[in-house]
Amino acid sequence: MAAGSQGLLPLILGLMLCVLSPEGSQGGKLLVVPMDGSHWLSMVAVIQQLHQRGHEVVVVAPSSSVFIKEGAFYTLKKFPVPFQKEDIEAIFTGFGYGVFENEPFLQRVIKMYKGAKKNAAVLLSACSHLLHNEELMASLAAGGFEAVLTDPFLPCGPIVAQYLSLPAVYFLNGLPCSLDFRGTQCPSPPSYVPRSLSMNPDHMTFLQRVKNMLITFIEPFLCNAIYSWYASLASEVLWRDVTVQDLMSFGSIWLLRHDFVMQYPRPTMPNIVFIGGINCISQKPLSQEFEAYVNASGEHGIVVFSLGSMVSQIPEKKAMEIADALGKIPQTVLWRYTGSRPSNLANNTILVKWLPQNDLLGHPKARAFITHSGSHGIYEGICNGVPMVMMPLFGDQMDNAKRMESRGAGITLNVLDMTSDDLANALKAVINDKSYKENIMRLSSLHKDRPVEPLDLAVFWVEFVMRHKGAPHLRPAAHDLTWYQYHSLDVIGFLLAVVLVFTFIVFKCCVFGFRKCFRKKEHIKKTPKSKTH
Amino acid sequence: MAAGSQGLLPLILGLMLCVLSPEGSQGGKLLVVPMDGSHWLSMVAVIQQLHQRGHEVVVVAPSSSVFIKEGAFYTLKKFPVPFQKEDIEAIFTGFGYGVFENEPFLQRVIKMYKGAKKNAAVLLSACSHLLHNEELMASLAAGGFEAVLTDPFLPCGPIVAQYLSLPAVYFLNGLPCSLDFRGTQCPSPPSYVPRSLSMNPDHMTFLQRVKNMLITFIEPFLCNAIYSWYASLASEVLWRDVTVQDLMSFGSIWLLRHDFVMQYPRPTMPNIVFIGGINCISQKPLSQEFEAYVNASGEHGIVVFSLGSMVSQIPEKKAMEIADALGKIPQTVLWRYTGSRPSNLANNTILVKWLPQNDLLGHPKARAFITHSGSHGIYEGICNGVPMVMMPLFGDQMDNAKRMESRGAGITLNVLDMTSDDLANALKAVINDKSYKENIMRLSSLHKDRPVEPLDLAVFWVEFVMRHKGAPHLRPAAHDLTWYQYHSLDVIGFLLAVVLVFTFIVFKCCVFGFRKCFRKKEHIKKTPKSKTH
């Protein structure tokens, strides 16, 4: 039986009425403090939509930004910083190259940590230059903004929002060290919520749970080195003591680029809105160049290969290994690669400086996706139902890869250890073994079956915060408790004390009663004796 | 600036595309196992919508049902039970009257508990008669249903769903004794999540937190008396050991009639969908009779008074007290009351056997709402922005009233202790003190500002479960852990043991080393002495 159209009409009317609500019809002013890099790329779609809905958007970014450029649907206010775009590009490239250095594990970790700290110091300095730019901050204060949209990965935006006394909407893919859980006061039992970088699944073995618990213990200290700088900067600028927790918990709404086809189900909070897959909604037709590549691929179709916006070249030896593997499959491979052409590159492999990843994956001829398993790429793979060969490089990419692998939607390779054959075999498996395609199609159908598109949801909640000056009715009282109150330690202590005192009194009474009885009996026993004798 | 219409088009198209998804265009078969009473009234709107969208709905109910009657948009399958509709009506009336008996607190609680247990036994027997009705169960098994929609307040539906191996959607307003939290594995820290019947707010004093903790301790035992019957019945019918937790955790999606303008913000789970206010969407024009009453009320407007579907008459003395109070205000009072007319009833008070509550509250002349603060009534008050005088009678009504009072949207009265003046003063306050109106209008505007209407959301998720045969990707791994694994007690124990063993070894080594050193020194000290002497 077909669904009655009369049933759809009120549904659509209801949705339209909601979108067209009178409060929503007034355009407002929104301040955006974004993160540079891939983080910016999905946020920009929300900004475009907000602009189309009549809002005026001002984006504030350092003059050194790589990805944040002038746009037709927002005003870009750049502020000077004592370093150049090239310095930031060098950071990105260095980060990419660093991944491929085959050093002992501990040495690599220490090197990466030091590198991250150095780079974070550069980005902190950008934030400091914004907050101390009196002219710019004064113009923002007088700008008549209704809210701040920001990515709190490095929490400059939250400081700006607090400085301007504006409600904030956070737009992100999660934070390291469970800072997102702490910022939203969201419980995350370590028994089944895997910690980031643990590579644990949700159904853990005993030892995995031990590992998860140990990470839970050390997490607060791990991130403190970088995040405490922002707390100090905030305290200085806001003239009061500010903690990292204060900065994070300031968010009225958290737009989290998560979806439970990828993430493991876990507790959430009323002000967390899941918008995973927001980056793969708008599909455009392919350009002539790419259309030609795809058409020429014949019945075998294409494989899309990209290691993300930050890593476009890799060491020559690794590139040759990969080129060798790619030559072993009949598909045409479109590889985003800006390094020098590997000498052994096969005829089926086409190097491009940039590729329309989502549009290519959406083509019916896409057979597989070789990805670094960044969250954007993973969701594009899911949306378009393309099985993946994953080569995680850093950050949350290892976890993402493990999650997709556990769902049977792809194969994970260690980019350092893998051989040419490993890659070729993995590609052949995900292309020829039907289970990979079936699994990713099942995930895709679950992911795309949703009451509201993630982009519309993001736009709705940004406007909601603008309309209502925040969302205080979604803020849990947990934010106003100390850690021992939150865990009811004072109450448990009090109840234990009551029980102990009560037990002590009962015990004393019993002893007293027993003695009384015992003595009386002894006395009674003794008295007749004395009488009879 | 007006919102650009070009921005709305893709938004609406996106929403339409989603609603019109190919999977959704096929009508399916849905089995509904409802609860009788007010619980049925909001569920029926979802059934109507599903019918309009092309689905075939079969409702199963005992022959004694009071509220569940034949309907144009579903097939009602009644099954025989050894009691009549009148017996159930007598239970409802007795429950209503019991509330007004002015006995000592403990006596009342014991009486209510005994009454509830007796009534629950009757309703359990209805469930048993359904499950042992071989002919009906066989016809249901052969019915080709895709899912079960049920209210698990008394968990007969969950047993039916498990018996038929069908995924279940739970539709409810919460469960007593935190069974909803346990059923969804949703954390609920007692430090800020008030327990039902505690009348605590979310920001609690120390003593309120102690009370909350004590209730948390005794909750599992409180409800066991009634709910364990269903576990036994399920174990018998399903031929395996079934616990109450098993019955509750079977729900694929929990459609919870909550909204955070009324409930305090607290953790939630991915398979919990909030549809609070679902009962007050469809507003119809008033009948001639009620239109006439409202028009005749003049500038003072009307007050709507109802104690809910279960309590339509109260003891005469209390009715006279109330009638006296109602005569002291200039508004016209429409009072749903089926008892004998109080002799002191004033001219401004009109007794009616039934009233279109939501439609009357939606009239611009509605000035106040006297309610027993059942969840349906409260949401109708919020939707329509009408301040309330609340007289909670039983169950969650005390909590609902306290919540609305804490938000400044109404005044709570103790129906047993209140005098005629108390009621008159409360009515005058909520009508004349502008803050009550402002507060309820603020709540109303927050409540109605949502991306999808609750009815559409409920319909979407029922269809989702029908399409995908459940929602396993939203089921947390917590369901597969024992209680000590969930709380990581085994891991903590293991880590403590490791630390203790390590400390012990270090201590022993130190002692050993110390002794060695000490003896050596003593030896050295002694040796020179012997040499010098």
Automatic annotation (TrEMBL), chains A, B:
Q: What keywords are annotated for this sequence in UniProt?
A: Endoplasmic reticulum, Glycoprotein, Glycosyltransferase, Membrane, Signal, Transferase, Transmembrane, Transmembrane helix
- Top EC category: transferase
* Recorded superkingdom: Eukaryota
Q: Name one GO cellular component term.
A: endoplasmic reticulum membrane
Q: Where in the sequence is the signal peptide annotated?
A: 1-27
InterPro entries from the UniProt entry:
UDP-glycosyltransferase, UDP_glucos_trans, UDP_glycos_trans_CS
What's its EC?
2.4.1.17
- What topology does the record note for this protein and the membrane? Single-pass membrane protein
Give the PROSITE patterns listed for this entry: UDPGT
Subcellular locations according to the entry: Endoplasmic reticulum membrane; Membrane
Name any one Pfam family assigned in the record. Answer: UDPGT
Q: What molecular function does GO assign, one term?
A: glucuronosyltransferase activity
TM ranges are 491-514
Catalytic activity entry: glucuronate acceptor + UDP-alpha-D-glucuronate = acceptor beta-D-glucuronoside + UDP + H(+)
The family annotation for this protein states: Belongs to the UDP-glycosyltransferase family.
What protein name applies here? Answer: UDP-glucuronosyltransferase
